[in-house]
């Protein structure tokens, strides 16, 4: 079956595994006719999208807006820049707007400024608050599609969410910690960057649900509003440890993990198990040093591809035949850590 696209892109568009798509493309036996039709339809859709982009002669400028620690914004920038190269040359051009901490009013002002200046799409990681949702409504009314990234704004006018199932990720963290601590129990320090982010809230809800249902001997202490920065998160962690001698595990939802370990070291307290999110530079180093036990990782390049496809479909007035799917969550240990980009 002739095509000009990467197997992973066809699989993403068709909602199939890369192995299944490879079997179809190479004419191997054991493939259902319906599956073959899905692959053909996915290739046709990709061809229409790229033809539409070429025919319009437009470069699609996309603004990536994020309130997030630099270690995560660096990983997101690398993912989007890598995915840009897999599309036709010059189809996408990204403008990055990153800040570690932004007040909602500052974020709204930035979104309105982008809307008034003009853009073909906005990819947004932002807190789920009413004023941000209203800014998304204004962008959508102006014909600018907004895709939320890693944390959703479900009650806004965003056209798609690109990211993982955060509640399932929290449930997975609870399972890992609960099975590791077993009947010995203890208490888990749960760290959030801020309670304003829907994605972090979903992770915490999933975590608490499974701990309560399956591991009632394990307690939870939460810290929040450190915004994932080392200084603020470290201060909050040190105060929590001083107040509660039972804390012996960590589920890091919001980052600042070097500072959390520093707080444990300063208190001369061991960490029996530490579960974190995302393979940023800090977590890679901590995982390699065997300090973090597990990292819950999802592929940011998949998220970038999902965002680009959604924006391209709107910009070229082509309907999406397959809805964007959630990124899969992978449990990474020191022994299966993927190579860095």
TrEMBL record:
Transmembrane segments: none annotated. GO terms for molecular function: carbohydrate binding; DNA binding. Gene3D superfamilies: 3.40.50.2300, lambda repressor-like DNA-binding domains. GO terms for cellular component: outer membrane-bounded periplasmic space. One of its GO terms (biological process) is regulation of DNA-templated transcription. It holds the Pfam family Peripla_BP_4. Residues 8-46 form the HTH lacI-type domain. It is found in: Periplasm. Belongs to the bacterial solute-binding protein 2 family. PANTHER family: ABC TRANSPORTER PERIPLASMIC-BINDING PROTEIN YPHF, D-XYLOSE-BINDING PERIPLASMIC PROTEIN. This is Substrate-binding domain-containing protein. It comes from Rhizobium leguminosarum.
């Amino acid at each position: 079956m002739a095509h000009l696209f990467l197997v992973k892109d066809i699989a993403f568009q068709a909602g199939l595994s890369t192995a299944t798509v490879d079997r179809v493309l190479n004419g191997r036996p054991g493939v259902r006719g319906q599956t073959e039709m899905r692959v053909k339809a996915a290739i046709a859709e990709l061809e229409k999208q790229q033809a539409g982009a070429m025919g319009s002669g437009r470069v699609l400028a996309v603004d990536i807006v994020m309130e997030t620690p630099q270690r995560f914004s660096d990983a997101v920038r690398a993912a989007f820049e890598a995915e840009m190269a897999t599309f036709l040359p010059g189809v996408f051009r990204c403008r990055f707007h990153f800040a570690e901490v932004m007040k909602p009013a500052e974020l709204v002002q930035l979104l309105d400024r982008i809307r008034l200046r003009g853009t073909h799409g906005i990819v947004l990681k932002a807190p789920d608050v009413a004023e941000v949702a209203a800014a998304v409504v204004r962008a959508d009314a102006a014909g600018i599609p907004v895709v939320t990234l890693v944390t959703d704004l479900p009650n806004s006018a965003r056209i798609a969410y690109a990211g993982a199932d955060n509640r399932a990720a929290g449930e997975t963290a609870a399972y890992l910690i609960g099975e590791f601590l077993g009947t010995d129990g203890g208490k888990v320090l749960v760290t959030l960057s801020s309670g304003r982010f829907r994605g972090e809230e979903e992770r915490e809800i999933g975590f608490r649900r499974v701990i309560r249902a399956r591991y009632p001997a394990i307690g939870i202490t939460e810290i929040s509003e450190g915004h994932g920065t080392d200084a603020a998160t470290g201060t909050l962690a040190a105060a929590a440890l001083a107040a509660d001698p039972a804390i012996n595990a960590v589920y890091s939802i919001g980052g600042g993990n070097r500072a959390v370990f520093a707080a444990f070291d300063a208190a001369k307290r061991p960490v029996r198990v530490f579960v974190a999110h995302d393979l940023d530079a800090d977590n890679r180093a901590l995982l390699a040093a065997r300090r973090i036990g597990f990292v819950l990782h999802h592929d940011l390049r998949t998220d970038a591809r999902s965002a680009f496809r959604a924006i391209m479909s709107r910009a070229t007035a082509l309907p999406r035949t397959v809805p964007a799917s959630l990124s899969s969550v992978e449990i990474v240990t020191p022994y299966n850590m993927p190579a860095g980009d």
